[in-house]
Amino acid sequence: MEIREMIADERRRMAGLVESLTAEQLRTPSLCGAWTVKEVVGHLVAAVAAAKSSALPILIRSGFRLHRANAMLATRMAARPAGELAAMLRAHAESPFRPPIVGYPGQLTDLQVHGQDIRRPLGLPHELRPERLRASLDFLVGGRAIGFVPRRRPLGLRWEATDLGWTWGDGPLVRGTGEAVMLALTGRRPALDDLSGDGVAELRRRVSG
Question: What CA–CA distance (Å, rounded) separates 68 from 203?
Answer without folding.
Answer: 26
